[in-house]
Design a protein that fits this description.
single chain, mainly alpha, 74% helix, elongated
Length: 129
């Protein structure tokens, strides 16, 4: 259960990383704002992969990205940021639910990453208030 949960969490982080990359490709002017958040998402994927036994969890980022289609990115920057914030919030909620059934160390990791994702969602939308 734990290895499978870690592999799924790693895969989810890689998917979110792909969303960041798609937004950065479509809106390079957002690079300064998104680069630190993207780096944290990449670190989260690595943290989950360290304990996962699944070969898909340890796939390189480029292999993972090429295996799945690029997500659609809204044409305007504000909508693209809102879409990223929604993805971060959704994944944070999913992880908060998953941690209830996870063993100790994985639960703590899921909680920390869920909190980080909620923080990212706030940072992505704070200029829109």
């Amino acid at each position: 259960m734990s290895a499978r949960a870690r592999a799924r969490a790693a895969r989810d982080s890689r998917g979110l990383l792909g969303q960041y990359d798609a937004v950065l490709t479509a809106h390079p002017a957002l690079a300064e704002r998104l680069r630190p958040l993207r780096a944290e998402v990449a670190a989260h994927a690595v943290a989950f992969e360290e304990g996962a036994a699944s070969p898909t969890a340890t796939a390189s980022p480029s292999a993972t990205a090429s295996a799945s289609p690029s997500p659609a990115v809204p044409a305007d920057e504000r909508s693209a940021l809102a879409a990223l914030a929604t993805a971060e919030r959704s994944l944070a909620d999913q992880r908060a639910t998953a941690l209830l059934d996870a063993p100790g160390e994985l639960a703590r990791l899921l909680a920390a990453v869920a909190a980080a994702g909620a923080g990212h969602a706030y940072l992505l939308t704070k200029g829109d208030q």
